[in-house]
Amino acid sequence: SVSISSDGSLIALGRWNNTIGLWINRNKESFTYEKFADFEEHTDKILSVSISPNGKYVVSGSRDRTVRLWSVREKRLLHGFKEHKGDVNSVSFSPNNEFIVSGSKNGMICLWSIKERKLLHTFKAYKDEISSTLFSPNGELIISGSWDCTVNLWSWSLEEIKLLHVFCGHTDRVTSVSSNSNYVASGGIDGKIRLWSIKNKEKFTHSLGRVLINDELFSPNEEWIVDRSLGNYYGIKLFSVKERELVHTFRGHEWQVNCVSFSPDGELLASGSWDNTVRLWSLKERKLLATFNHQISFGHERPCIECVAFSPDNEFIITGGWNYTVTLWSIKDSNKPQKIFDEHKNIICDVKFSPDGKLIASASRDCTVRIWS
Q: Which superkingdom (predicted)?
């Protein structure tokens, strides 16, 4: 399990050797993290970690059936909550940094007070395993997902927790849940991404070839959902959140679409494919703007683009693939790459720009993360 602080200065990593590693970035101008602390009080594998919104705390859930609260500044354990009777699969902070919600393998949800270091509520929420628990952005609701195929919406106070609604529709285990102010999104093993309206309790459902929780599904303005289905279908489906329907299918790739990314301004979509191209699409005009052909430019050894990302200023894209290289492109020039970084020794799994756009981070199956300027 991995958690990154809201300002990007801290990274917490929960390990299967029962420990939590904490890394810190002391220089906002760089993208360099150094080891800051190791937390070693758990007695079994770490299943979930989360950094508080203010960056002062780390909370962890473990197979040892405990929730532990850590001080970042003091580098020590503040408290161990031991009321869970099953593996703790999920932990999350409230937006005001005052409470923790956790969910366990035996279907229990617990609400904890950070200030008082005590359990406020515990209740049997499900008959099956809980996969996700989190607070809504305003902190007024708790949202949970379970292996019983449902997503639950709860209101809470210091006095009670009340079930508001059960979102039903998944036909297999719910594996991941996320939320903004208006919607809850859930993904399940049934191969469906579902979008639920918090206000109207309505659902918008689309069937995927496979659930891909790490995909960039929502546009930055939350107007669009994109589905790059796997298998023999090579199109990219664009859905309107407001209209709750398919509005367009982008066609052009000649093989499986492997990755997608929205531009920060929400006007463009980039897609990478096993056909060895990255294609740039206009969401407004619903048309292809450019094709970046890696094979013509410098020759991928194997035909696959694994990842793609936009720069913060919408001027560049970076790609990574099976030829072990990271490639920088100008969206205004698809004829040749601006720069090629080729020091990785295996497939590139992910690429990202730093918030200021000056640095590029790449992760590879060679077990390294590299920073490029």
A: Eukaryota
**Secondary structure (3-state) at 346:** coil
By residue count, the chain amounts to 373
Locate tokens 């004829």: which residue?
A: 335
Q: Which amino acid is at 234?
A: Y
pLDDT along the chain (373 residues), means of 10: 84 93 79 85 96 96 97 96 94 97 94 96 88 91 86 89 82 76 74 72 52 55 71 71 79 84 91 88 92 60 78 94 89 90 88 88 86 87
Spatial CA neighbour of 46 closest among 78, 70, 28: 70
Contact by Cβ (8 Å): 194, 205: yes
Which residue is it, tokens 């408290």?
Answer: 79
Enter the DSSP assignment of 218: B
Distances, alpha carbon 266 to alpha carbons 46, 53, 258, 269, in Å: 36, 26, 20, 8
CATH 3.40.50.1240, domain 219-373, yes or no? no
What distance in Å separates the CA atoms of residue 65 and residue 86, rounded to the nearest whole number?
A: 5
141 vs 218: CA distance, rounded Å: 22
Element (H, E) at 246: strand 245-250
H-assigned helices in the chain = 294-297
The H helix count followed by the E strand count for the chain is 1, 34
Write b or e for each residue in 210-245: b if 16 or more Cβ atoms lie within 10 A of its Cβ, otherwise e.
ebbeebbbbbeeeebbbbbbeeebbbbbbbebeeee
Q: Which of 43, 63, 59 has the alpha carbon at shortest distance from 51? A: 59
Q: Contact, 370 vs 319, CB < 8 A?
A: no
The amino acid occupying position 178 is: S
Q: What is the pLDDT, as a whole number, of residue 106?
A: 93
- pLDDT given at position 26: 81
pLDDT at 302: 53
Domain residue ranges in the chain: 219-373
